[in-house]
Amino acid sequence: MSEIKQERVGVYVCHCGSNIAGVVDVVDVANWAAEKLKHQGVVIAREYKFMCSSLGQELIEKDIKELGLTRVVVAACSPHLHEKTFRTAAKNAGLNPYLVELASIREQVSWVHTDKAVATEKSKAVVSGAVSRVIENVPLEELKVPINPNTLVVGGGIAGIQAALEIANAGFHVYLVEREPSIGGHMAQFDKTFPTLDCSACILTPRMVEAGTHPNITLLTWSEVEKVTGFVGNFNVTIRKKARCVKEELCTGCGICEEKCPKKVIDDVFEAGLGYRKAVYTPFAQAVPKYPVIDKANCTYFLKGTCKACEKFCPTGAIDFNQQDELVNVEVGNIILATGYDLFDARRVSNYGYGRLPNVFTSLEFERLSNAAGPTNGNIVLRDGKTTPKSVGIIHCVGSRDKNFNNYCSVICCMQGLKFAHLVHERTGATVYNFYIDMRTAYKAYDEFYQRVLEEGTLFVRGKVAEVTDAGRNEREKGKLIIQVEDTLAGKQRRIPVDMVILSSGLQPRADAKEVGKLFGISCSTDGWFTEKHPKLDPVATMTEGIYIAGCAQGPKDIPSSVAQGAAASARVLDKILQKEVALEPVRASVDQEMCSGCRICNGLCPFNAISFLEDRMVTEINPALCQGCGTCVAACPAGAISGTGFSNEQILAQIDGLLLRNIEPVEA
Amino acid sequence: MTSNGKPKFAMYWAASCGGCEIAVLNIHEKILDVDANFDVVFWPVAMDAKYKDVEAMEDGSILLTLFNGGIRNNENEHLAKLLRQKSKILVAFGSCACEGCIPGLANLSPVGEIVHTAFSTLSTDNPHEIYPRVSFDVPEGELHIPKLEPILRPLDQVVDVDYYMPGCPPESHQIAAVVDLVIKVLRDEAQLPPKGAVIGAGNSTVCDECKRTRNVKFIREFKRIQDIAPVDPTLCLLEQGIPCNGPATRSGCNARCPSAGAQCIGCYGPAEGVVDYGARLITAFSSVVDAREPEEIERILDGIPDPVGQVYRFNLAGSLMKAAKPAWQKA
């Protein structure tokens, strides 16, 4: 070990109210540090109720100035929470902020232990490690890089549209990427929105048109992001624009191609499998953009080599069967992911009979049934397409709050079920039963809607439905769907025969959410939703700077919440854009070229493409502006030629020695 | 200074194979320079000497001691301490003294198991199950043999070391260069390197001296060299799936093994910037595994049949882990 450097270290132990002090004897820890770590350079050790308070920070600032501290250790919560606070305090007092270390004695000690004596001893070790480490810290300067003012929004549902419009209206350019041929997302499929019963399309389509015609928005539909490189302020994104086989510059959106196309295809995306579309199609009348796409998998020309009806009839010659996928490269400073959700596949709850019993419908199917623009022109009928049901059962929590499927509550299903009940009532006069576990009608005007549906005469049965069957036991049940349920309020089993069953299916993460997360460098929760930076205080940011999330991609939510998140994410992006430059953490890797022998092990590893190999000198180099300090190459370098600032061998080994109390010298008698 | 006025030289072998001694003799006529410039006072493999003669010497009276071998028993330890006391410059000579080397791999087993393996496995004819004892009574009196310590330690875990000279054994041209240097220092023509320095070796890695071409690495399979036919004579061995330790190993041997078509096994020990040799290598190897699925990664890494022997063959005793306290308490 090198000789002990004579630094002047201040140690500050936080009570965090009773969060730490309830389990750790903070006074003992501070006294111990003052005495046992004195030889290491500890000149003052204090404990205080809330170190993060202004008074606590001032205490540190005062000591830095008056005692000439050159290093600071704050034993408090995880660095995630308050590292910045204390670094800023140090900076205010004229000390380089990177000469401050946090010792986590809350998350790593008091919250995970109950034995006070042991917790106190462990806290001492953690503080000792931080003191040994901070002595090896070196002053660092932040790196400033300019921010590209363009933004990428992935997903053209209501959350993505909202985010794109907010940013575009503020005068900055947005690339809005949508996988389907049109923006609009799930909201475009709904008939009415709860609780106001607004026509979903009527309130959505103006926003779609605005997004489609906005001079600051480049719409990239029928497109998917393939590759993302770079970092906050400077992302480079490769987008695959799938071949529409329609020349956008010539197409007028007249719809003749769609009319003349002889091939009918079951539309299992927009019409939820209830209706047909053509092989060349726009998903719905108000689609934005208006250009159709040719579905190559079903188009007769692509399958058999003949037909070309669309090409023949197209008045502007816009059809181009030879069109190829195009890779578009855009540079953006920030990215918002609003990739939405998948509907829970009701087939998985086999006892509810979806897919086997024709008159069991999913919620999305019902949306299309009740939609005036849908396959039945808004007539609520059974699967035969003509019979109006006389009785309807609506089952809540399908696939949600269920250990066999998804543990979480899907948030929207109760209100959705109530909306369905109202629509069935209004349009058919049928008897409606709602089967619920708990009725969750939080938020503005939601419970009033519940009261209204109650007053309309909908019957409510509290209990989880066991089974939907067509095996009738008597005349009354014959030809009906029988809902077997325990009515927990009446305290008895009931069998309720109905004509139609609607499953209020839950929401679940997109099937490819994990891959998409990987692509953008963010993680998913165990349930599969994108993980926010902080569940309470930073719900639209992620752990990767410059990547934001909005809408159902972050977790189940209703339309107002999705819109609010879209707006919130855009506000975060605008904040970044207006700062014009971003200060990057100076934690960076660098190569000692004397020690690098050009083995090239690190060359293929950098997720940010910061590593290049200099053939002429046979050494590797790291671009500090691209490096994000992830440490992958530092760990991989077999020669130990790459080191990461803030995480040098000296710092880490000193911290280990400190944790093991190897730095404690016998106190002189 | 002795009567002939020449500075004193000593060489000792502790737990080692003797290869280091041969390497010294392998410097050919240069050995005459050693004799011409030094008074060889203690070198058990080359000349008769008694420990009590060394004990009788004045402290610090030996100018240069080359100490090879690790510290495995109490005799090794006694001589290490004794020679430290008597020597001005103590050099950990060769891999065993520097980092434990092959004998250090025995640190994976408790002493009892080591003795059992040595005295009763198939290759040993020991029908009466005779095991060595530390002391044994014979009519002439009590006999002693050295007692095994719980683990093998490199020299610097026992005494202060001035210089390290790696290699298994150190290359003869490097030994000759060091001999030349010391003689120059004696004549005031050169200066000694700073204490604790590695001498007789380079500051880079074996790759630096290796002539094979190197590319970005994607490894889909690790293979033993005998399972590859033919080995590409010009391409980086690691890229061919042969676990070559060159990238983490100190330069100085002129990449002898890779030049001869065999992978580097790491006898020159950790390169300058490497704190823990095995940890470095395993992270380096793992980094270039070209697979995403856990099962596939496992399959590829299973291609290294003896991971400890691969990445810690020479460095286990000298690794960051050293030995845990319980290893001492168990014995």
Task: Record the SSE blueprint.
The complex is a heterodimer of chains A (669) and B (331).
Chain A: E1 9-14, H1 26-36, E2 42-48, H2 54-67, E3 71-76, H3 79-92, E4 100-104, H4 106-110, H5 116-136, E5 143-146, E6 151-154, H6 158-169, E7 174-177, E8 192-193, E9 198-199, H7 200-213, E10 217-220, E11 223-231, E12 234-241, H8 256-260, E13 264-267, E14 275-278, E15 280-281, E16 293-294, H9 300-304, H10 309-313, E17 326-332, E18 334-337, E19 341-343, E20 360-362, H11 363-370, E21 391-398, H12 413-428, E22 431-436, H13 446-455, E23 459-462, E24 465-469, E25 481-487, E26 492-498, E27 500-505, E28 507-509, H14 513-520, E29 547-549, H15 559-579, E30 581-584, E31 589-591, E32 611-614, E33 619-622, H16 632-636, E34 642-644, H17 649-659
Parallel strand pairs in A: 1-2, 1-3, 3-4, 6-7, 6-18, 7-10, 18-29, 20-27, 21-22, 21-27, 22-23
Antiparallel strand pairs in A: 5-30, 8-9, 11-12, 12-17, 13-14, 15-16, 19-28, 24-25, 25-26, 31-34, 32-33
Chain B: E1 8-13, H1 19-25, H2 30-37, E2 39-42, H3 51-56, E3 62-68, E4 71-73, H4 74-86, E5 87-93, H5 95-99, H6 101-104, H7 111-120, E6 135-138, E7 141-144, E8 148-153, E9 163-165, H8 172-186, H9 206-209, H10 256-259, H11 277-287, H12 294-301, H13 307-311, H14 325-330
